[in-house]
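just leaving the lab so this will be short. what follows is a protein written twice so to speak, once as letters and once as C-alpha cells for the fold. can you read through it and tell me how you think this chain folds. anything you notice is useful, everything is just below:
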Amino acid sequence: MQYNLKELPNGIRIIHMEVPHTRMVHSGFILNIGSRDESKEQEGLVHFWEHMAFKGTKKRKAFHIINRLESLGGELNAYTTKEKVCFYATILKEHFNKAAELLCDITFNSTFPEKQIEKERQVILEEMAMYRDSPEDAIQDEFDELVFEGHALGRNILGTEETVGKFSQQDFFDFISSRMDTTNIVFSVVGNITFKKVLNQVEGYLSSIPAKRSLYIRSSYNQYIPKSKVVEKDITQAHCAIGKPAYSIYDQKRFKLYLLNNILGGPSMNSRLNLSLREKHGYVYAVESAYQTYSDTGFLGIFFGTEENTVNRAKKLVLKEMEKLRTQKLGIMQLHMAKEQAIGQMAMAEENYAALMLVFGKNLLDKGKVDSLDSIFDTIRETTAEDLLEIANEVFALDQLSFLTYLPR
C-alpha cells in the first residue's frame, strides 16, 4: 500500500494513492473534530455543521453547491462520527480540480445562512424522528448512552430536540473557531491521478488557508460501570444490545480483537452467533457483533432482534458463545480458517477506493501513518489460540458486560 504524503506550512497534510485502473478520483477532508468534542449544550452541533456545509459559502448558494458535481456525474457527501467530521467527493478524473475546489469552499468558507439554519433544523428533527422509529438504530444510540454514561462518547451524534432547536449562526462560528486546528486536518486523495497533479491543483487552495491552532483537549474516558436496563416501547419485536468498552486504536491487541470479534459475530454467515441464533435455532433474522475503536477507548457491542418470548433464550445463546471463546481454545484448523477469512475480508475492503480514501485520512490523523495491509496481515497470522483466549477473558467477562433490552409494550 504505497502512498504519498506532504505537509503544508499551515499544518494541513495531503495524502495520496494513485490507482491507474479506474476512471474516478475520490477525495475529501477529514477533520479531527467529532461529536465527543461538543459540550452538553452543543450536542448535535458537529452533525448540524455537516448539513450546513452544503447550504452556502462566501461565493456559492446551496443550489450551486449541490449542482456543481452532480451535473458532472459526481457525488458530494459528508458524515459525522464521535471523533471525525468528513467532507468528500467522487468525480471523473478530468474533473478532480472542480471537486477539490468545492471541497475547500464548503469546508472552510461556510457562512451558515440564518434562513438555511431554520430549514435544516427541521430536516434534522425529521432525521431524529426517523431513527427513533427504527428500534435497530435507536437501541445502538441508547446503548452508547448506557455504556459511556456521563461522558461525551455516550451522547447522540444527532443531538437532542432541545439543543438542535437552539443553534444559531454564531454558535457554528464560535465552535469551529475554538476547535479548528489545521494540524488536525488531512486532505486525502485516492484514484487515477498522479501526486504531482494533485499538488499542482490543490496546493494553492490549501496553502491559502491560514494556520490555526486550538487549545482544546479532549476529555478521556475511564469511568465504565456495567449496567442493565429494560425499556418498554411501542414495537412488535424485542431488541437486545450486549457489550462494553474495548481496546483503543492505539492498543496492540486491537487487530487480535478484530479477529476474535469476526469469529464471534462478524459479517459472514459462518460467524458463531449467526450459526447459533439464526441457523440452528431460528431466533433472529440478523445478529451482529461490532468492534469500534476510539482514540482513548473502544466499544464492542452485539445487537439482535427477536420475538419477545425468545429474547431471554437468544441472550443466553450469545453469552454461551462468548463463554466458549473464554474457555475453549481454538483448534489449529479453526484458527487458520478464521485468519484466512479475516484477511480476505480486509483485502476485499481495500477494493473500495472511496472507503480507502477516508481510512487513509483517519489513520493519518490518529496515528500519523497508515498501517500497511501486509503489517496487519502479519499481526493476524502471528496470533495464537492462547492470544485469543486471553483477549476473550478480558473483553467477554460476564460481570463486565452491559445489557439493554427493548420489549414490546
Q: What stands out?
A: Residues 253 and 266 are 17 Å apart (CA to CA). The chain has a mean pLDDT of 96. DSSP finds 15 helices and eleven strands in the chain. The radius of gyration is 22 Å.
